[in-house]
């Protein structure tokens, strides 16, 4: 699944169950080899579910109580092997059904229950969305459909019959292959479809969709010659925007066959686009359900980045068929087993199809601005947590993106060939099982070590990455013996304390490094395994020189760490100009940008450093400079605001935003001629269809932002006019260029975008986000009015995130010293929590860095947190708020 002060005490809150702990895990005492569901849709507010569970006690010697989960279900009847259970033989509480003395031999339990999808605003279980019924069962939503253990280690084969009105619900979908479809013999207005999934799966992978949908059909022939029917289901009118997603699916299927040898295993693959969806997408076996934003797209309605994102997410959910579905998680503490691995796989998919170096930079930047921020705050947690209150709160960048980095480190340590041998062992050994992260690491190292060669690192020590929270920091000190040409690197690692983990142990950290040659690029790339608190590596035989050679470290972002390599400004400019590793070159530039921006934010611009940076940029922009527009745009891009905040002694987001605007304006003035020349040079590629032309469009947007900041009238006009053009990439680039500037063009462009796209909710959410994040003197009043806009849908997480996420990314407004932005956000989180706890709990994390602010802002955030703490909150949001105040 794809994945966004007072009181002082942090004790558990009343009325909430104690946290679940990894150390308490026990296997479920019953097997459930088969589940048969009969789902009868009477009305959107009344669905009856008959569930037949075939149960087999694991222990045949003693009768163990059977405990099933159920939320917001009306139990109509319950029978065991056809006999009605007497009232005294079971108890029904608010969220569980317990049968006191079930048989010690295999038996069938039937429950008949009724639920109301229209009243289900949580968007978990079975709920109504735009007239259709759909499901979201990960992590614990199946209990909102029928009584069941609802845990990932209970694997069953499912047979599902769905019955509904033919006119209102002409499309009836579930997992597996369609077995039969017919009109009811006694009522021609109703029909039924039966689905059979031959592969055992946990309940969180169950899916059902019933609605009036349009079908786009295609086919894929597997490597062994089997034909698979591909069906994509959307609302009427959305059919023209599905081609990209369908082609992405076929590319994903081909890639998984060619790289991993993994073939799709059923006769059909269905995808459904849903407007009301908490997540990005869900990998339900053979019936993927997507947030509409990640399906409906073409070049006019989505940016280049969004098209690549859709391709990546389609791939991610498809790749789950093996890394998540055929092999699933034993328990939710193992969540990164499927998500970290599948993120790694979708990252490699995108890198193979496009640019591996630029993809690596993109992933590193994302990690630094989101996961590192998470690691440094009150919600920091390991890739494999040891406890949780609400599992929905752990669908985080730590589980997903950091989890992917752990797998990437294994590949770096083992080498690609040995790593892929290990992956093959994992898929064969654990097919059809609910596995653990320990199982994964063991399988990979077993496969890698089959050649009898040493691994080169301690496996048990590597596993610490799964259990230890926080971002390690590596200090690199160099010693140069000029006479002998000997270079010594001494590396030290440390990890700061995180909540609940004061003491940290040394990790296995792969360090790819090289030495730049005097005449050009880097020399031989070497791997050092840092597995002690301190270690030294020596390189002999370098050419004697008075000055030490320039060292390039953590090439390709070889580990998810921060580092200080002691590089001088001269070293950084050399790396920025000459390093042959794209990531290391970009990283050197980022370090220089950070120095410039932080000095400006403090009111002490470094004129000498800015002058040197201008000279370096002139070289990049010259006719003999960087020719690839994608690379050039990446090198010119500023660091993210979150990463910059982490470098300040007292984080001051508004001051950082002002510094960014000042630098754009200054450099836009001084580089105007060269920037305009580059615009002319890339103009002929702007109309090329994705993925071609994306570098030209990316560079155009960046140049517009610099020239517009400098007040260039043509850039202002071109940026505004782009809103009317055929490229969403250029339209959004123009809006972003204009956004920080109080000018007529900005208001005209925003109004034009509003009028053009107000009938398309998937796109119109972008307008909500732009409006909410645009700095104005009356921004808070405008944001409040957005929540009353006739196109705003409070039940759609996309709309909520667009407005409130836009506010959080508007530093001048959200971080106003009077606390008005914080108070407004707290009020909205309380309101959202009444409807959708998952969305609210994620919004609450916008306060996670409050202790890094100055005293005045800290006091303002504490008042907002007090307001949240005093409210009647869900378990999800209460857990986050409590962690904030711990």
What does this entry show, briefly?
This protein is of the alpha+beta class.
The CATH superfamily label of the domain at 32-212 reads tricorn interacting facor f3 domain
User: Portion of residues in helices?
Assistant: 25-40%
Biggest sheet, strands in spatial order?
A: 6-5-9-3-2-12-15-14
Largest sheet: 8 strands, mixed
**Could you list the spans in which at least 5 consecutive residues all have pLDDT below 50?**
4-15
Classify the oligomer: single chain
CATH topology annotation of the domain at 32-212: Immunoglobulin-like
Mean pLDDT: 96
End-to-end distance: 30 Å
Q: How large is the count of helical segments?
A: 28
The CATH architecture assignment of the domain at 32-212 turns out to be Sandwich
Structural class: alpha+beta
Number of strands: 31
Q: Which geometry do the CA atoms define?
A: globular
Percent of residues in β-strands: 15-25%
What Rg is obtained from the alpha carbons, in whole angstroms?
28 Å
- CATH structural class of the domain at 32-212: Mainly Beta
Walk me through the topology:
Elements: E1 20-21, E2 30-43, E3 46-57, E4 66-69, E5 74-80, E6 83-84, E7 90-92, E8 96-99, E9 107-115, E10 125-129, E11 132-136, E12 156-165, E13 171-174, E14 177-184, E15 187-201, E16 208-211, E17 214-221, E18 227-234, H1 243-260, E19 268-274, E20 281-282, E21 287-291, H2 304-319, E22 328-329, H3 335-353, H4 356-375, E23 387-388, H5 397-414, H6 416-429, E24 434-435, H7 437-448, H8 459-462, H9 464-467, E25 473-481, E26 486-494, E27 509-515, E28 526-530, E29 534-539, E30 551-553, E31 562-564, H10 569-578, H11 582-601, H12 607-621, H13 629-636, H14 641-645, H15 653-670, H16 672-682, H17 694-709, H18 713-721, H19 728-738, H20 744-757, H21 761-773, H22 779-786, H23 797-808, H24 811-814, H25 820-835, H26 837-843, H27 855-870, H28 875-885
Parallel strand pairs: 2-12, 18-19, 19-21, 22-24, 25-31
Antiparallel strand pairs: 1-23, 2-3, 3-9, 4-8, 5-6, 5-9, 7-8, 10-11, 12-15, 13-16, 14-15, 17-18, 20-21, 25-26, 26-29, 27-28, 27-30
